[in-house]
Write a structure and sequence with these properties.
CATH class of the domain at 68-182: Mainly Alpha
Mean pLDDT: 78
Largest sheet: none
Distance between the termini: 59 Å
Number of helices: 5
Helix content: over 70%
Radius of gyration: 25 Å
Structural class: mainly alpha
Number of strands: 0
């Protein structure tokens, strides 16, 4: 009669299954969190830029589109802020605190927008020359990355300042409203 019992296998020893060092796991966890936060800030920033010019005006005259003088910028920002105040049921004190934060950030970002447009024109010029200057293209790429980093840093600062003014309930309501308005992504 065959033996139908099985002998239990011993659990693997730590030396038989290598695992990453704790510091390495911690690094990857923080890298993932940082990447997620940076992605969220970028998405929120691009949505804010698009909202300044109104829906559908992202490329045709919104923040990243045609020339926007300071008076036009203030008018766009005032309209955007009025909608924001209604959506979050902002108090008068919050309205007084939010407007300078948003307007200051937009004024700081406007020159970066102009630099981006100049770089785009420069790229088109470089790419239409009889001989492509790879070094100049690489320098332009590097300067565009720095420009994006500067814009991202300023936008993140403004978002954090706005978050400080809002209550946790208002931030949650605003996030839900934005998620509902823009639908699921994927």
């Amino acid at each position: 009669m065959p033996d139908s019992t099985t002998t239990p296998q011993p659990p693997p020893t730590p030396s038989s299954t290598p695992s990453p060092a704790p510091s390495r796991r911690r690094f990857f966890r923080w890298a993932a969190i940082t990447t997620a936060v940076a992605a969220l800030a970028t998405v929120v920033g691009f949505k804010a830029y698009a909202h300044i010019g109104g829906f559908g005006h992202w490329h045709r005259g919104g923040f990243m589109g045609a020339h926007l003088d300071p008076a036009q910028l203030d008018a766009h920002l005032d309209r955007m802020l009025k909608h924001l105040y209604v959506e979050i049921d902002a108090t008068e004190a919050q309205k007084q605190a939010l407007a300078p934060i948003v307007k200051s950030a937009a004024r700081d970002l406007l020159p970066l927008r102009d630099k981006h447009h100049d770089a785009r024109a420069q790229a088109l010029t470089l790419l239409t020359q009889p001989t492509v200057d790879r070094a100049a293209l690489e320098a332009l790429r590097a300067s565009e990355l720095k420009l994006a980093e500067d814009a991202s840093r300023r936008l993140t600062q403004a978002l954090a300042d706005v978050a400080d003014v809002l209550t946790p309930e208002q931030r949650k309501a605003l996030a839900e409203r934005l998620a509902h308005r823009h639908g699921p992504r994927g």
